[in-house]
Amino acid sequence: MPRPLRYLMIWLCCTALTVTAAFLAVRFVVHSTSPLPPTARALPTVFSTPTSPPGPLVPATSAPRTPPTPTPRRTPTATPSTRTPTTRPPTTAATTGGHTASSDCRGGAGVHSMQSVGGRVTFNMGADAICLVSAVPAQGFTTSTKQDTPDTLTVTFLSATHRSETTGTVRPQPQAVTREVSW
């Protein structure tokens, strides 16, 4: 075999080996950094919307507050918390006098939670009604609820300088909206 042909064969083999090694390295990097398949989140985005910018404060239309009476607390799910206990017990569906006794909260979207500056609200969004599971205020906040119709429920957390109002509804579609106002 002539010398130039041998050099050409050696060059072609080295080039093919280098291209193959580069291809395998790039393929490994691309496959190892590909995104993971989508997973279900704890709270679907259809049920949580971003908070609105601060707006004018609307006066509350709830009844005058009376001192809370201690009631036994039943929590459907235990969530770890680093907050210190509040002086007011959390409001539950049993203590609000809402429409839970006569409403049908079965079916529908299910149980969903919303976190706000003032506290955490958990709704049971049924097919025809929405029920309050729990409303746990943050330190320094008080809780009030309002439910004029079975398909809409409003929970308000109020402090001396902030108001967090979470409204959940099942009509026309299940959703919960939180409005934050500071002064």
What key phrases describe this protein's structure?
four-stranded antiparallel β-sheet, alpha+beta, 30% strand, 2 helices
Structural account:
Helices cover 19% and strands 30% of the residues. The protein is an alpha+beta fold. Among the domains are: 1-33; 91-182, no CATH class. The strands form two sheets. The protein has a four-stranded antiparallel β-sheet with strand order 1-4-3-2. A four-stranded antiparallel β-sheet has the order 5-6-7-8, with no helix packed on it. The protein is elongated and about 95 Å long.
Give helix % range: 10-25%
Provide the gyration radius in Å: 29 Å
Distance between the termini: 91 Å
Uncertain runs = 43-64, 75-102
Order of secondary-structure elements: HEHEEEEEEE
Residue share in β-strands: 25-35%
Instruction: Assign an overall shape.
Output: elongated
| Largest sheet entry | 4 strands, antiparallel
- Structural class computed from helices and strand pairing: alpha+beta
The number of distinct helices, counting runs of at least 4 residues, comes to 2
Average of pLDDT: 74
Number of E-state strands: 8
Largest sheet, spatial ordering of strands = 1-4-3-2
Brief write-up:
Helices cover 19% and strands 30% of the residues. The chain has helices at 3-32, 93-96, and strands spanning 91-92, 110-115, 119-125, 130-137, 142-149, 152-158, 162-169, 175-182.
